[in-house]
Amino acid sequence: MSKQIQNLETTLTTLRKKVFNYATLPLERLSENQKFWIGFALLCLITTFLINNPFLRIANEQYKEGDIAHESIISPADITVIDETETETIKQTIRESIRPIFTFEAKRADEAVQSFRAAWESLAKKTSNSNSNAQTETNVKSEVQWAGAGGAELGKAFTARRFSPNELEAITRVLRENAEGSIYGDQDRQYFQEEITLVDRQKPNQQLVVKLPESGMTALSEARNNLKSGLKQIKSLSETEVEAFNAALAPLVQPSIAFDSVATNNARDAETKSVEPVKISLKRGQTIVREGDTITGNILSQISAIRSYSSSKRQWNRFFGLLAIITALFWVAWKFIQHRGIVPRLVLSEQKTFALFGFVVLVQTAIMAVFFRLAEFTLSQPTIGNNCGRFDWFIERLGCGRSNRLYSTTIYSQHGSLGNRLRSG
Predict the structure, then answer these.
(1) Secondary structure of residue 258 in the 3-state scheme
(2) Which of 108, 263, 261 has the alpha carbon at shortest distance from 183?
(3) 126-175: per-residue pLDDT in tens?
(4) Is the pTM here over 0.70, yes or no?
(5) What radius of gyration, in Å, describes the C-alpha atoms of the chain?
(6) 3-state SS, residue 29
(7) E strands, 269-370, where?
(8) Alpha carbon distance 253, 344 (integer Å)
(9) Helix-strand-coil percent breakdown of the chain, rounded to 5?
(10) β-strands 195-200, 73-74: how paired?
(11) Count of CB atoms within 10 A of residue 346's CB?
(12) How many CB atoms lie within 10 A of CB 306?
């Protein structure tokens, strides 16, 4: 008959039995008393975790500046923390107050003129050597190349005719006029403020504060446009020659003022390092905000300090304190059951009676914990309409049932019902 019953068992049932037997194998070596106290410890731990899980972070109500406080908030202890937000705000304000640093090159115009003259003299020398070798004019124009900026092909335009010294002097003057002065790169315009610090690269110890720099300086694109306009003012130059000289001279007009990001960041970092962290100091029992008051920026910082303190330092304190309370209550329940004897209606031993009692408490605690989590989650959601305000008030009052209240209600209700059964028996 037993073989027929075994044959009726499914593979899943057989596997489940094997897993159960394997899992309970270490328990078979323990005595009944040892099994009971291990179960007692697990019951206390699981119940405590259900009521107050230190690893679970439930989103508290997030206030914004200008909101109305739904309840009074009181400091639970003496708290001294650093206000990271306010400290960072002060540092950012100081960083923005430090003027951006720009470097100044005073010899940009001289360098541009020297570069043009050197390239022109090189071109004239090549042309002179070609003429001395009795080469034809056509061959000269095709062989001589421009050594300066703008490309080698400009040599053909520059050797098409002989330019007079006055023309060269006028071209040089236009280049100098548009290459000198305070010229900044168009990409550095974004770093301008009402005031900037100007440092001469030749004399780094001398610094000059310039107000409204954009109004007194010239952008690189504007300087090059002015260069082309100046070349057009030379009447003896044809349009082709103007384009050729502009192609050769425009690259020589370079910014004389450049943003120094390294020096600026170093100056700002040096100032922010001297900023003392802003501390928030609260006394135990100090009222942070009363119900109905308006939330301000200072109150937000204090609420954040309390939340940080509670989540870091008080979480495990509450857990172990609650564990001690739950262990004591279960111990009282066990001693009550132990001294009342066996329940006639259930015909259970003392250990099994307590196991039944603990199971009922555990299941009821788990169900209540789920609903409390649901209540806190619902409370954290944004409200819609006036009716939701009343519902939130109800949920808030429901969610404010703290872990001790939740557990005491559960344990005493089960304790009383079981006591009534024992007395009726």
Answers:
(1) strand
(2) 108
(3) 877 665 554 444 444 445 788 888 888 888 888 888 889 899 999 999 99
(4) no
(5) 44
(6) coil
(7) 279-282, 287-289
(8) 107
(9) 65, 10, 30
(10) unpaired
(11) 13
(12) 22
